[in-house]
Amino acid sequence: MTLAQATRGQRLLIAAIPDAAIRAQAIRFGIAEGAEVECYEKLPAGPIVVGRGKQQIAIGRRLAENIEVKPA
């Protein structure tokens, strides 16, 4: 399953970020493989808002389609 398929309120574990450029981008925001995040908001045809700790970030839909997750 990808981050783009997550539902609001779901807790997720980042399973894999296959693309090296996307992985580097995600690490800058504190999201790496093995991190647990929560899906706060999923805007129609827009970004996915995820949070970890007290930080929330909006991840573009196309970027979210390349981040593999599994339920936590």
From TrEMBL:
Q: Which residues form the Ferrous iron transporter FeoA-like domain?
A: 1-71
Keyword vocabulary terms for this entry: Iron
Iron as a keyword of this entry, yes or no, is yes
Origin, by domain of life? Bacteria
Question: What name does this protein carry?
Answer: FeoA domain protein
Would the keyword Iron be found if you checked this record's keyword annotation?
Answer: yes
> By its UniProt entry, which SMART domains does this protein fall under?
FeoA
Question: What is the taxonomic lineage of the source species?
Answer: Bacteria, Bacillati, Bacillota, Negativicutes, Selenomonadales
Q: Which organism does this sequence originate in? A: Sporomusa sphaeroides DSM 2875
